[in-house]
Design goal:
Layout lengths: L13 H12 L6 E4 L2 E5 L3 E6 L2 E4 L10 H12 L4 E3 L2 E2 L8 E6 L3 E5 L1 E2 L2 E2 L7 H16 L1
Parallel strand pairs: 4-5
Antiparallel strand pairs: 1-2, 2-6, 3-4, 3-7, 7-8, 9-10
Length: 143
């Protein structure tokens, strides 16, 4: 359990480091964190879901760190008229979504193709995720 001020980047990240180490021990790339059935973020990433061509990510609060790449993705959505919503994704409804991706400074935009033993979609990055990646990398080349 992370502390209640996850929005502050500090050296008090032991729970995140431990969650990430646990993910690695279990052959996973990332650990997704949640509170009371609400997905907040990854151990070192922000978490996004896609349903019916609409992107979802947790709203800003003291429970998530507002990542730089998260901000860029949401700005790309605004600029390109991609529908998005800042609302929590429920763990209990995870299989209702079409695709997922995580964002971070070192992970950029990374598709999520498996959650635990569940293969997401056809096990390949979804169209929306690939589109966001293309916009992100195109924008990065222009800077």
């Amino acid at each position: 359990m992370r502390w209640l001020r996850c929005d502050i980047k500090s050296t008090s990240l032991l729970p995140s480091v431990m969650a990430n180490q646990n993910a690695i021990r279990n052959n996973a790339f990332e650990a997704i964190l949640f509170r009371d059935d609400l997905i907040t973020e990854g151990s070192h990433t922000n978490f996004f879901a896609v349903k019916n061509n609409k992107i979802y990510t947790a709203p800003l609060s003291n429970y998530i760190l507002n990542g730089i790449t998260r901000k860029v993705v949401l700005e790309l959505c605004r600029e390109n008229n991609i529908d998005f919503s800042k609302e929590y994704i429920r763990v209990s409804n995870i299989k209702d979504y079409d695709e997922f991706f995580i964002t971070g400074t070192t992970t950029e935009i990374t598709p999520v193709i498996q959650i635990d033993d569940w293969i997401v979609g056809d096990g390949k990055p979804g169209n929306m995720t690939r589109g966001i990646q293309e916009l992100f990398f195109y924008t990065a080349k222009q800077v």
